Amino acid sequence: QVQLVESGGGLVQPGGSLRLSCASSGNMIDINVMGWYRQIPGKEREVVATITSGGNANYADSVKGRFTIFKDRSKNTLDLQMNSLRPEDTAAYYCNADGWSDGVRGFWWGQGTQVTVFS
Questions:
Q1: Whole-angstrom distance, CA of residue 25 vs CA of residue 28
Q2: Closest Cα to residue 37, out of 58, 10, 15?
Q3: 3-class state of residue 88 by DSSP
Q4: Residues 115, 28, 77, 40, Cα dihedral to 10°
Q5: 53 Cβ partners below 8 Å, 6+ apart?
Q6: Pick from 88, 85, 92: which is nearest to 112 by CA?
Q7: Once rounded to an integer, what is the mean pLDDT over residues 35-53?
Q8: How far apart are CA 29 and CA 103, in angstroms?
Q9: Looking at the chain, which runs of residues are DSSP E strands?
Q10: What is the rounded distance in angstroms from the CA atom of residue 22 to the CA atom of residue 78?
Q11: 87 SS3 class
């Protein structure tokens, strides 16, 4: 089935940039939507950005104009380019795949990567 592995998190100052990548394995042919979510301790996981198999992207209001979700065909990854980072963007970021894989309906998660924006 689907396995997701995130990378690219780290420490950055406000106004800085980071690029997260999500490498996937398994049968991804019938995955309808992929996305990035984030979570801080004690709060629910929230959607950051999603992209459909057709390439339609949607963003949380809080990141519109600053973050870009895209599929890097050369690396076969789902990436999230994060610019103009703010302290409130600090969170664990998770890659997600929503759809079917080998006959199983699933909502798969990676293990997460930490992003910390500090002054």
A1: 7
A2: 58
A3: helix
A4: -10
A5: 31, 32, 33, 99
A6: 92
A7: 97
A8: 11
A9: 3-7, 10-12, 18-25, 30-39, 46-52, 57-59, 67-72, 77-82, 91-101, 104-109, 113-117
A10: 5
A11: helix
Residue with tokens 């789902």: 78
Residue 30 predicted with pLDDT over 90 = no
86: Cβ contacts below 8 Å, ≥ 6 apart: 14, 117
* pLDDT (tens digit per residue) in 56-98: 999 999 999 999 999 988 888 999 999 999 999 999 999 999 9
Give the confidence band of 31 by pLDDT, cuts at 50, 70, 90.
confident
Helix (H, G, I), strand (E, B) or coil at 89: helix
